[in-house]
Every structure is written in structure tokens, then in C-alpha cells.
Amino acid sequence: MNSELQALKSNHTWTLTELPPTKTAIGCRWVYKIKHKADGTIERYKVRLVAKGYT
């Protein structure tokens, strides 16, 4: 998770801006996934940050 956050920061993925008074910012959450090899052992752990864009 720390390496993913570092990558987002180094790529300048987002910028801070002021919102209009009638708007609210959308949230985000971390999604975790375990990649498995063909024999069922763990290959690696994956993580990504996604926006909560519910309507």
C-alpha cells in the first residue's frame, strides 16, 4: 500500500483544489487482491486506490 501511495504522489495523480460551497468531495478506498499461481500458492499482493463514485 505504501508503494502504491508513493507512486500516486510521484506521478502527481491529484491536486488540491477548493470546492464550491454547494459541492462535497468524493471519497476513496483501498481495494486489495491476492494473485495466485497455477498451483494455488500466493504470487503477490495487489492494491489500488479507487474513487467512491456512487450515484
Question: Would you mind describing this structure in some detail?
Answer:
This protein has one domain (about 1-10, about 25-50). It is built from one helix and two strands, in the order αββ. The protein has one helix at about 1-10; strands at about 30-35, 40-50. A hairpin with a 5-residue loop joins strand 1 (about 30-35) and strand 2 (about 40-50). The radius of gyration is 16 Å and the shape is elongated. The relative contact order is 0.25. The mean pLDDT is about 90.
Structure keywords:
55 residues; alpha+beta; two-stranded antiparallel ribbon; 2 strands; 16% helix; 35% strand
* Rg from Cα: 16 Å
Structural class designation: alpha+beta
Overall average residue pLDDT:
88
Query: How many β-strands, per DSSP?
Result: 2
Largest sheet: 2 strands, antiparallel
Q: What oligomeric state do the depicted chains represent?
A: single chain
Helical content, roughly? 10-25%
The total number of structural domains is: 1
Distance between the termini: 27 Å
Elements, N to C (H/E): HEE
Tally the helices: 1
Unreliable stretches? none
The portion of residues forming beta strands comes to 25-35%
> What global shape is seen?
elongated
Spatial ordering of strands, largest sheet? 1-2
InterPro entries: RVT_2
Protein name: Reverse transcriptase Ty1/copia-type domain-containing protein
Organism: Cajanus cajan (Pigeon pea)
Domain Reverse transcriptase Ty1/copia-type: 11-54
What can be said about this structure in brief?
InterPro entries: RVT_2 (IPR013103). By secondary structure, the chain is α+β, with helices and mostly antiparallel strands.
